[in-house]
TrEMBL record, chain B:
Protein's UniProt keywords contain Transmembrane: no
Compartment(s) of residence: Secreted
Similarity comment: family membership: Belongs to the peptidase M4 family.
Species annotation: Streptomyces lichenis
Occurrences of domain Peptidase M4 (ranges): 111-189
UniProt cross-references to Pfam families, sorted A to Z: Peptidase_M4, Peptidase_M4_C
PANTHER family: NEUTRAL METALLOPROTEINASE, PTHR43579
Official protein name in the record: Neutral metalloproteinase
Domain Peptidase M4 C-terminal stretches: 192-360
Cofactor(s) listed: Zn(2+)
EC number(s) reported in the record: 3.4.24.-
Keywords: Hydrolase, Metal-binding, Metalloprotease, Protease, Secreted, Zinc
Ranges for region Disordered: 59-80
Upper classification of the organism: Bacteria, Bacillati, Actinomycetota, Actinomycetes, Kitasatosporales
Length: 92, 367
């Protein structure tokens, strides 16, 4: 796989039904390796098709350099949760 | 934050908290049973239920003594347990308060506990249903889920509440209607089980907003005219520009804020939003049936949980609402249901037909 540069997270649904989207470009980041390891784990764990969601649950679309996977609350893996939290908090 | 909706229990304390566990048609059969004791007990229950319903229809609070425990009735107390996720995500977390146990110092736990009770009480005292499954299902909630978690959800077996991030959202247990909304997802799951996608998903959401609002209004002792008809009032952080997350009275006006955006809800079919996001806009297009309920309830006036709520409850639980029902299926079925319960051509029938017409949905089979 080529070096990961862009990681985006789109969160939809939830009680409020308000969509949030954020993206991180890892190119110039000192912790790029950490991001890449996390992103690889998430790509390996995610599903290509959106999973069924629970009422009012968030669902997530994670895109890593064009590869897209889906996941939904509350059945997130630790890596998915960490990546989602970091991208939504630190991304633009 | 609103005044506490849990303190005013004037409604609750006067209505015996007894639910019919055995359905009326079974009681009918029992009432003609050979065994004289069983038959008598069943007849007593039927008469008592009928009196309660008649009294409710007439808008008076029945002063009936609690019925003796007998075939068909039982004290339908809730069976609540609140858990604390301690800011992690394992469910259900640590058990912190069970049924009948005294309040804790943690107000979030106590609000969740009280909210479960208020919802159980609406189902039981008003609609004669023992818990969300009609069979005394224990009610479980987990609070303090994850960190800064901006959501509350129903996972199919329990409610889960986040504390909010403090910047946009506050603790999701601050709004009684949010707690009741989540529990109403359980009611839907055990009854019509509306598929959580597209129009049936928006109906699922709308039913939760409606019963969430009814629990709040009943706890506050508010009539349809007095109610704010907001969902999620009190969970938006102080700097957010908005009254709540949704408005049944005026969908699309609940908030308008730089961080949150603008409330996207339509009030009429002409403005139905087609989107693949949010399971096909389940939290968006729910504004349409939400507004129809508001129009219906306010046209009737008085306590919305009585006549208007009864029609919605009957429609949801009556067995005729399909899993994949669309708005028009629901609107027609509510009218049929209202006519079955209150008679055709009455105030309920007229108000409901007009409400659906206003939002652009049919009332009759051939519309």
């Amino acid at each position: 796989m080529a070096p990961i540069m862009r990681i985006s997270v789109t969160r939809t649904g939830g009680f409020a039904g308000i969509e949030r989207q954020a993206e991180v470009d890892t190119t110039a980041r000192p912790d790029a390796d950490e991001w890449h390891a996390l992103a690889k784990a998430v790509l390996a764990e995610g599903t290509r098709m959106p999973p069924s969601v629970v009422p009012d649950g968030f669902s997530y679309t994670i895109a890593v350099d064009g590869h897209t996977v889906h996941c939904a609350d509350p059945a997130l893996t630790d890596a998915q949760r960490e990546l989602i939290t970091r991208v939504l908090n630190e991304g633009a | 934050m609103n005044q506490s909706p849990f303190g005013t229990s004037s409604v609750d304390s006067r209505v015996p908290t007894l639910c019919t566990i055995v359905p009326p048609h079974v009681l009918d059969r029992l009432a003609s049973a050979e065994d004289a004791d069983i038959a008598q007990a069943a007849r007593r229950t039927l008469a008592r239920d009928a009196a309660l319903r008649a009294a409710r229809r007439a808008g008076v609070t029945p002063a009936l003594p609690p019925a003796p425990r007998s075939a068909g009735t039982a004290a339908a107390e809730p069976r609540r347990t609140v858990y604390d996720a301690e800011h992690r995500t394992a469910l259900p977390g640590t058990r912190v308060r069970g049924e009948g146990e005294p309040p804790l110092r943690d107000a979030t736990v106590n609000r969740a506990y009280a909210g479960l009770g208020a919802t159980h009480d609406l189902l039981c005292a008003v609609y004669g249903r023992d818990s969300i499954d009609g069979a005394g299902l224990p009610l479980n909630a987990t609070v303090h889920y994850d960190r800064d978690y901006d959501n509350a959800f129903w996972n199919g077996g329990q409610m889960v509440f986040g504390d909010g991030d403090g910047r946009i959202f506050l603790d999701f247990t601050l709004a009684l209607d949010v707690i009741a909304h989540e529990l109403a997802h359980g009611l839907t799951q055990y009854t019509a089980d509306l598929a959580y996608q597209g129009q049936s998903g928006a109906l699922n959401e709308s039913v939760s907003d409606v019963f969430g609002s009814l629990v709040k209004q009943r706890a506050l002792g508010q009539s349809a005219e007095q109610a704010d008809w907001l969902v999620g009032a009190g969970i938006l952080a102080p700097d957010v520009s908005g009254e709540g997350l949704r408005s049944l009275k005026a969908p699309g006006t609940a908030y308008d804020d730089p961080a949150l955006g603008k409330d996207p809800q339509p009030a009429r079919m002409a403005d139905y939003v087609r989107t693949s996001s949010d399971n096909g806009g389940v939290h968006i297009n729910s504004g349409i049936p939400n507004h129809a309920f508001y129009l219906f309830a306010t046209a009737l006036g008085g306590p919305a949980w009585e006549r208007a709520g009864q029609v919605w409850y009957d429609t949801l639980t009556g067995g005729e609402l399909a899993v994949d029902a669309e708005f028009a299926d629901f609107s027609r079925l509510t009218v049929k249901t209202a006519r079955a319960r209150f008679g055709p051509g009455g105030a309920e029938d007229e108000a409901l037909v007009k409400a659906w017409s206003t939002v652009g949905l049919p009332a009759e089979e051939d519309d």
